[in-house]
Amino acid sequence: MRALRRTVALLLRFRRPILVLTVPTLLVAVNFAPAVALVADYRHYALVNSPEYQRQYGRWDVVELPSDMRVNAIHAALLPSGKLLVIAGSGNDQEHFDAGTFSTLLYDPATGATSLVPTPSDLFCGGHAFLANGNLLVAGGTQRYEVLAEDVTKAAGGMLVKNENPDYPRELPRGTVFVSEAGLRYVSTADLTLPPADKVTTGQGRRTTTTVTASEGRVWVEAEQEGPEYATDAQVHYTVDGVVGQEATEVYGLTQSTTFDKQEFQGIVDTYEFDPVAEEYVRVGDLVHPRWYPTLAGLPGGGVIAVSGLDGTGEVLDGQNETYDPATRTWTERPDLRQYFPTYPALFGTSGGDLFYSGSNAGYGPDDRGRDPAFWDLDENVLTPVPGLRDTDQLETSASSWLGPVQDQRIMVVGGGGVGDSERSTGRIDVIDLDAPEPAFAPATDLPQGTRYPNLVQLPDDTTLITGGSVGYRGNGQSDILEAYTLDTDGALTDVADPTVGRDYHSEALLLPDGRVMTLGSNPLFRDAENTTPGRFERRLEIFTPPYLFRGDGRPEITDAPAGVGRGTTMTVSSPQAAAVTGARLIRPSAVTHGTDTEQRSVALDITARTDGGLDLAVPAAETLVPSGYYMLFLLDADGTPSTARWVQVS
Question: Domain limits at 629?
Fold first, then answer.
């Protein structure tokens, strides 16, 4: 309806001729209806491709990839090479998972070139973050797909396994059999490695005391045979089949329950760095805990923290967070940073060094725990909640991003819905100033309808593109929203051209180096309004060209820029339009999944000197504002038109 209203309004505004059909009878009207629709479609097509329309609203173009290069886009990241890394893994496809068919696509939006990258593990629903060297850290993924209760044939559950031997680790491969006191046998579905027990000796001489604390880990086990006798809700002790003597008392298992209930997705420990130069995955140290649906966020100093996710038994991790050291390529558990979050929490590094949790998340976890936005003081491991956010019971499937340059320290929360497959959704757009004396969310505006799964993209002109989403859970009821907007830093929402491809669950959007925006993915549950026909994964891409690329006589050009620059220094950039340049931005490339993008941020650069053909640009000194890594450098003119970006590595 918005497109029809806009078409009529603009036809009148631009004085385009309008075909008027007068029909004497209802019969004639019915007979001519297809012709009228055809004329309307033609007029709309001509209008949206007119220069007047595109200057005001921009333009969308669908991209069809070769059939053998189409993947289910679950994750997308813009590499410093300018190529898109599109990770599917098994792509939310049980058949692909069972066959071990895992996919990753490399797509060059500048040339259209495509290639498939060998994908060694099922990275479906892992997490990712960029490192200072430009590599993309990818951790976690899928060990096992969910099994609905009606399909469960054998009792199963999580097994807590302990090792009380302080001298030796214990490796228990997949297929290890655990035997209950009643002789019932259960088989593990994944490898498990237990480190030696922790041994502490205090005192001296006869007063020496030694304390041994068992190491432990969790693994999913399944009854060896069918039968109701394998189900129990009591704690049961298990021995490991084949382990005898003293060892049998040192390594053992405990379960709280084994049931025929629904079994959730399960995570993996696999971790890789994707090298954008070699264009390959490089295996690095495993996570301490298996994770599915985790968030990875950068830390001051270049490390990365992994937060939340479902573990190897399908349970939400109870605050066991860990950090990655790029120098040693290893993960370390951080009991000093134990905090619970629902899966895929939106975390942002602030100017003061804290992480800010906006409340946005992708689900999994109780509705009364870990849902409130808060500052996370990493030095003291304290969460400080912030007030003011509307519709706090509808933060699942919302999206969050910075609003304007990161120096402004403003975060916005857009849309969202109730927990799980709730029918509730909100169009709320609230903003918080993290630097305010008493930070609190305040209403900015509202979208015209409730919107789950919105995609947010920061543009070089300081506006944010809001596109895609659906009113209902996973697009139910054919509720995909074929509308898009830009939000400016004053909170004003402006219509832009309507996308033609729906984007809901498992969709992504990213800024490209030429100033356009790529959208991809979408995984609706159904494809009919009655919710009776299973949905299909959307494999078409669509590119949005913002209005700023249709204005004026051209765009600024960067003819030379340094490949690298230090924080707190000045870089000289050559441009024939230097005299007309009014601003400069460093924009960190996106790495997005499930509406969660901890990477994108725009950094405003002061122009400190200007010549006929060049500019001196000052880079902020604070690492918390400009984390080390690769950025796109844009120059802007008075109309907000950006140059094509140059890649610059900040260190």
Answer: 564-650
3-state class (DSSP) for residue 201: strand
- Do residues 340 and 380 share a domain? yes
Instruction: Give the global pTM.
Output: 0.92
More reliable by pLDDT, 211 or 123: 123
> Same domain for 474 and 346?
yes
Tell me, yes or no, whether 130 and 168 share the same domain.
no
What mean pLDDT is predicted for residues 52-73? 96
Helix (H) or strand (E) run with residue 528 in it = none
- CATH number of the domain within which 166 lies: 2.40.30
pLDDT over 90 (residue 296): yes
Measure CA 204 to chain center: 54
Among 494, 525, 550, the domain boundary falls at: 550
Q: Give the Cα separation of 93 and 83 in Å (integer).
A: 25
CATH code of the domain in which 494 resides: 2.130.10.80
477-510 confidence digits (pLDDT tens):
999 999 999 999 999 999 999 999 999 999 999 9
Q: Which stretches within 282-338 are classed as H helix?
A: none
Whether residues 528 and 605 share a domain: the answer is no
Say yes or no: 382 and 473 in one domain: yes
Kindly list the distances between the CA atom of residue 341 and the CA atoms of 191, 345, 354, 360, 401, in Å, as whole numbers in the listed order. Answer: 26, 6, 16, 10, 18
Is the alpha carbon torsion for 427, 429, 430, 432 positive or negative? Answer: positive
* pLDDT band at residue 546 under the 50/70/90 scheme: very high
The strands making up 410-414's β-sheet, listed across from edge to edge, are 399-402, 410-414, 428-433, 441-446
Task: Pick the closest to residue 306 from 321, 289, 317, 319 (CA basis).
Answer: 321
Does some domain include residue 232? yes
Q: How many domains does the chain have?
A: 4
Q: How many CB atoms lie within 10 A of CB 188?
A: 22
171 vs 173: CA distance, rounded Å = 6
Tell me 534's DSSP state.
Answer: B
Q: Is residue 556 assigned to a domain?
A: no
431-450 per-position pLDDT tens digit: 999 999 999 999 999 999 99
Look at residue 558 and tell me if it is in a domain.
Answer: no
Whether 374 and 471 map to the same domain: the answer is yes
Query: 435-444, 549-558, 596-605 — which is least confidently predicted?
Result: 549-558
Residue 325 reports pLDDT greater than 50: yes
The candidate with the shortest Cα–Cα distance to 288, out of 217, 197, 188, is 217
Closest to 325 in 3D by CA, of 356, 285, 380, 288: 285
Q: Are residues 478 and 625 in the same domain?
A: no
Cβ within 8 Å of residue 293, ≥6 positions away: 125, 127, 140, 265, 267, 308, 309, 310, 343, 344, 362, 363, 364, 594
What residues contact 253, with CB distance under 8 A and at least 6 apart?
Answer: 159, 160, 161, 162, 178, 221, 237, 238, 239, 240
The answer to whether position 559 is within a domain reads no
Same domain, 544 and 418: yes
